[in-house]
Design brief:
58 residues; alpha+beta; Alpha-Beta Plaits; two-stranded antiparallel sheet; two-stranded antiparallel ribbon; binds iron/sulfur cluster
Length: 58
């Protein structure tokens, strides 16, 4: 069940700062995304996102 960053992201960077796995990165368009292979699904990024932009897909 991977986590994903949606279009609601406002680029605040909080998720990238809290991710202990360093799994959150910027793509070529400077938007944040999650490296699925690095994510351990801890859910910490979801807790700090102020706009609910990170979802867990079933
Ligand atoms: S769920 Fe945890 S490991 Fe995965 S991207 Fe979020 S903070 Fe990083
Ligand atoms: S915490 Fe939420 S709004 Fe901030 S960069 Fe991450 S996904 Fe975007």
């Amino acid at each position: 069940m991977p986590y994903r960053i949606t279009k609601n992201c406002n680029q605040c960077e909080r998720c990238a700062e809290v991710c202990a796995q360093g799994a959150i990165d910027r793509d070529k368009d400077y938007k944040f995304f999650i490296h699925k292979n690095d994510c351990d699904e801890c859910g910490e990024c979801v807790k700090v996102c102020p706009v609910g932009a990170i979802i867990r897909e079933e």
